[in-house]
What we know:
The chain is α/β, with parallel strands linked by helices. The protein has a single domain, classed as Vaccinia Virus protein VP39 (Rossmann fold, 3-Layer(aba) Sandwich). 29% of the residues lie in helices and 29% in strands. The protein contains six helices and seven strands, in the order ααβαβαββαβαββ. Strands 3-2-1-4-5-7-6 form a seven-stranded mixed beta sheet, with helices on both faces.
Amino acid sequence: MQQANKRDFDAVANSWDQEPRRVKLAQDIVSAMRRELPLDAGMEVLDYGCGSGLVTLGLQPLVGKITGADSSKGMLEVLQAKLDEGKIKNVTVQLLDLERQTLEASYDLITSAMTLHHVQDVSALIASLARALKPGGFLALADLETEDGSFHSDSKGVLHHGFSREFLAGEFSKNGLREVRVVTAAVMEKKGEDGGSRSYPVILCLGRK
């Protein structure tokens, strides 16, 4: 991500979970993943761009091991505190920025929620995630469906105004994933400047290696 337009997630880490709408969105995304994926206790999972771990911890009881990876040290500290408090043993944290680093391990499932729109080269990211899947592994990426830029009141660090279903499905297929499909994981309601409510779909793209 370009440094000049990079949001300081460390600064907001401690208050991240205090937004009920954000917590509800993570729960909806986890519910969609549970419906669409054959989660089991043998899976090794990577949650990329995990933030404070809302999705990570939603998946944690349903899989074997899960790594919460993020480029924000502050967010990972918040997640680690949750792990320590809950004495959760099957989750590890990893400081990782795939725009500068590569993945060394491979996984049965890689997930990401609301991270893609902060990434400059989404095509390259999807390619790197697909490469890190074990044969038969699943990729599940959730983000906003294409919108007009009104979703974020603060656009710093927002590099894309959502994504079309066709773009995400095309990138999955381009990288050799099969059984590709896109579902609606959630719909967020937000008030516009005119005081009216607007709906913003969050889509989940899935594919298998």
